[in-house]
Each structure stands twice: as C-alpha cells, then as structure tokens.
Queue: 2 jobs
Job 1
Amino acid sequence: MEVLQLLISGTSQGCVYGLIALGFVLIYKATEMVNFAQGDMMMLGAFFAFTYVNILELNFYVAVLATIATMAMLGAVLERVVLRSMIGEPPFSVLMLTIGLGFIIRAVAGAVWGNQPRSLPTPYAGGVFKPGGLIIGYENIVIIIGTALLCLCLYLFFRFSRLGIAMQAASQNQLAAFYVGIPVKRIYGVVWALSATISAVAGILVAPVSLVDPQMGFIGIKAFAAAIVGGFGSLPGAIVGGLLIGIVEQFAGLYLPTGFSDVTAYVILLLMLLLRPEGIFATMQRKKV
C-alpha cells in the first residue's frame, strides 16, 4: 500500500517535471536553443492564474483559458523581440541570454506580486479520493489527468495538423523547410508560444500543491535533467524522464537519509550520462541533407 502511495505521488510530481521538460525539448528541436528560463515561465503562468482567480475574481476555468492565452502571447513576443536575433549565434550566448531572462522574470514577478508565497484556490482543492485504503488528493489526480490530456492533444496536433507537421519539418531541416514554402521564422514564434502554453498548464497544475512564489521556477533545473534523461530530442522521453525522476524522488525521500531526495534528479542525470549519454529514447537526429 505504501509503495502504491509513493508511486502515485511520484507520478504526480513527475508529470510536472515532464511538462516543463517538454518545453525544453520543443524549443531545442525547432531552434537548437536551450531555454533555461522554462521553469520561470511556469512560475509566471502560475502567477497569472493567481491574478485572474484571486485579484480579478474570474471563474477558475475562465482564468485557466485566460492564463494560457496570456502565456502564449508572451512566449511569441519574447521570441520575436528578444530571441529571434540570437538564431545562429553560439550556443553559449543563447544559454547566457536565457539564464539572464530567467533572472529578469523572477525579479519582475517579485516586484509585481511580492516574494511571499501565495495560494491558488481551485474547485477541487482539499478533496481526497480513498480507493482501497489509499489517500489520493484530487490535486494529484488532476495533475496526472491534465498531463495525459495535454500529451494526447500534442500528439494529435503534431500528427494531423498542417501546422504541427510544418513544425516537425522545420525541426528536421530548416533550410529545406524554407525552400518548400514553410515560414520558418513564424514557426519559431509558434514554437515559443506553444512552449509557454505548456509551461502555463504546468504552473496551473502545480500551484494548488505548491505555493506560488518567484522561486518556484527553480524546478526547471530538475525538469532539464528529466529532458536529458529521457533523451533531449524526444518528446515522449521528456515525460518518461520526468516520471522517472519524480517517482525515484518519492522513494528516496522515504527510504534514504534526509535530504537525499533533493539531489536524486542529479544523481540519475549523472548515471545516465555515464551509462547512456543519449538518454532513454535515443532519438537525437542528425540533420538531413
């Protein structure tokens, strides 16, 4: 029973890591940039949801849609104003830019909303499901179901929509995509908007179980580890890597010495780099000529 309880808690936490890791992988596949501000985008999404629900007093579900729309626009604007000029620049320059962007986002969030932790009320907060002696919070159930639904939507989007197929083509070979008429630069904006949307969903899902504050974006470091563990070019790998880290963290917190669970993600990352550097799903694809 205890093992099942830990599996459910770990799956819930791992889903959050996986969603943020999805944002890392999406941007990298399309633009070959690594966005180290991804966790801070998640934090920003949580704060927007808090604003719409607590301050503007919108219906929760309306606030969710408003948050997703706001973050999508913000992601597209950031790509156009800040990051488009960095395409083709050395990876280290892009790395430093996104790290700096993360610091700016945290500073702005602290200035606008303050540094004290805030709670996000939801219609399902505090509810508990007790199947067969297990105690499962509704928040954890919503995180797992929400992640599954988002992954299904992404699969359908990339599999059947023209825009999704165009995004895959641009990620495979930008020059060839341009020659066949795909507006590659516009695709970049869509990718950043989609990545920001995923971050917003992650922020909304995690906010009820973790108080909203400007430092919550540091969870993105563990999500980055999850993306590498799963295979940095693989969207399914991002989710699998997140689940692996989330579940192992829960077991480490119970069975290993105090504090060890905090470094579990980095231990798994180190082992993966030593044993299988390409990640669980070795789908890092060479550019086609």
Job 2
Amino acid sequence: MKHDLKRGALLLASATFFTAALNALQKLTGSTLPALEIIFFRNLFSLPFVLLIAARTTIVLRTHHFGGHLLRSVVGLVSMIMVVITVTRLPLAEQQVLSYTQPLFLVLLSIPLLHEKPSLQRWIAVSIGFSGVVVVAMGKGLLHGAAGTVAHWAYFVALAQGAVGALTTMQIRQLSATEASTTIALWQAILMTVMTALPLPFIWTTPSMTDAACLVAVGAFAGIAQVLQTEAFASAQVSAIGPFAYSGLLWAGLIGWFGFGEVPGVAMVLGGLLIIGSGVWMLRHDRPAQKQAAVEGTMDTASGTQA
C-alpha cells in the first residue's frame, strides 16, 4: 500500500466533518420526525455511495454467513437509533466525545467474546478513558443529582452507544475473516434500509420541505463520509492517520457552537482530552501490520459511519 500521510489525514479529517454535519442534521430533524424514519432515509440515500465503493472492485452479494450480516445490521440499527436519540437531546460535542469510548468498550468486550488478554498498557488506557467519562459526568452533575436542562438518561444512552458501536466493530472483524469488505457494507446498507422501511407505514410523519432536504443531505453526507474514510485508509497506515479521526470533536464543537449556541464546558474539554488520549495511546501501542490495518481500518470506520 502506498503510504501518503498528508492525503490520508486530510481525507479522514474531511470524513469526520461530514459525519459531524450529518449528526447536526439528525439533531434538526430528530425533534419532529421519528428516529426510524430518519435512519431509513439515511441508509436509502447512502446506498448509491456504497455501490460506488463496491463498483471499484467487484460487487459481490453471495454469502454463506447471512445470519452474521443480519445480526450485525440489527446491532448497527440499534446503534443508529441511539445516535439519533442522543444528538437530538445532547450538545453535539458531548455526544461526540462520549462516542469515543468505543475503543475502550472494544477492549472490555474482547475478553468474553474473543477470549483475549489485554496488555497492561491497554488496561491503563481504559482506566484513563473512563476517568474522562467521570470528569464529563461530574461537570454535568450526573454523579450528585444536580438539576440540568438535559435529561440525565441521555448521557447514559450516549455512553451505551459506545458499547454497542464496539460490538458492531467486533462483528465486522469476525465477518471480514471470510467476507469482502464491500460485501459487508452492501448487506448492511440493504438490510438496514429494508428493516427501517417495514415500520414506516405505522410511524410515518410527513416531513416539511426543509426536513425533506435535510433527510436527503443526511444520507448523502453518510455516503460521502464512508467514501472519504475508505480512501483515507487506502492511502496511509491506520496507526499513522487514526488520531485524525478525533478531529470530529472539533467539527462537532464548532457546529454546535455556531449552529445551536452550545458552548463546550471545561469539564467536557478535559474529559474529552482524557478519552481521546486513551484512544490514541491504544492506537499507537498496537501498530498492526500495514495490510491488515488497512482492511480493518476501512471496515471499522465504515461501521462508524453507518452506525
């Protein structure tokens, strides 16, 4: 793989911008439209971009692990619902920083599910990361019952979404042992579109012209982010450009500040630095082989965009 750090970093940072932008649009539409309706259009309008990625190699839908794809899509759908719920109720930067707990939960889940034994460095990183969560929680008074304008349960849902996102990543890694990355992405997009289409007649809320435009943009931004992430991890090693994935916090903070008047607090910034620092530490400590990193990085970030 040709290693172009500058190109890979720029593409990944751009991908995080589109992800932050689609979360902002989900925040706008989430107050008037059902979460499943938003997610249906997100998957529907992102499908052309998934096909674009697949067409670069070979579009393969044949699989001997349909059950695995179905389970992965169900878990991914739950993760998407949790994202819509939390971005609707939390400041964008706070939702974003809590989503960065995914690598921490990945370490914890690897013990019972993959029978792995995390190294001492990983345990230190996990401890630092969750201490960051505590700092964010203390800043919001979640640990001592202080009243606030945001429901406390929304923060717990955001934290739980990190665990569910870690589970989807683990499922993708298991599927990628026998399935092509494009096959996984295609089945995910197709199954999620179908699953969210089924309840539409019962929950349908006719969107306004503004909401309709936002729904199209949500799907387009999700697809663009996935294309950019794929190109980024095809351009450089995951261990080299991975930290640029955390630039999403900058975009979320700026969009939240100027778009919604959400000014990040000191506790959120300090907690975010601890969480992000733990993730970067684990990323630098692992440094997987270039080829395997490219494959896993593409799939992990594609999962992040979809879920």
